[in-house]
Amino acid sequence: MWTSTALLPILLLSVAARNDRRQIIPSTTSSAPAPTTSSAPAPTSTADAFRVGLAMNTDSKADIASFGRGKIGWYYSYNTEPLANTDGLEFVPIIWGAQAARDFTGAVAVGTTHILGFNEPDIDGSSGGSNIDSTTAGDLHNLWTSKVPAGILIGSPAVARGSKAYFQRFLDSCGPNCKYDFVPFHFYGDNADDLVTYAEDFYATYGKPLWLTEFACQDYVSGYVCTKDQVETFMDIAITFFRSPNSPVERWSWFGAFPDYAVTNPNGILNTDSTANEQGKFYATL
After folding, report:
1. Where is 31: in which H helix or E strand?
2. Which UniProt keywords apply (predicted)?
């Protein structure tokens, strides 16, 4: 429930952003080149910064250099196709939903090393999820992963916060030979310590490296959106944990790198001209 009606415009834009960035469903006639890694662009990031990512879409047009040279290492676009002008960042494709799974032929962009599974299949489309029941998700996961070229690491579906029960049902459906090498997951809330606990619990349960592909200091249950200072504190605590020895979180990407998002939401990390704002630069330094 809302604690203040003043927060309503902020949350509505946040929900719209969560919906908009996900609706780019891969074409059924992909022209992606044949799988290979021989001519991948050389990443500009150091090995450590290579863990730091961006969640973007076709509206982002992010000026990667504005984050600081070598500060960002990878991105995904809620699609199987890379974006233009991304300054040599590693691109990670995603099999966003059911149709993308059925359409996937195994063709991936040059240089692909990892591929992400379904985006929030546990929630409906009005909230930005791909809305796939767990039984169907297991069947479709087996379908598309059977076509992934050898050597590419596979991500499981990324469920929303609090959906471990769904994830377990998905695994039961997927079966004993379910192919996944790492577990993407999402977290929204206003307490970074809750994120730490959640990540540790996920890892303890499933024992696979974690990728936090969406996180922000915002609670979609209460409607609370953090202030700029709270966002920075949340980022600092979370990423300090990610970088700590034996952390289960292998890579992360903040939500979100969209030009208009920061106009009303302090979680936005781009200016309207697609350069990194103060929050974006702070994120990149951690």
Report:
1. none
2. Signal
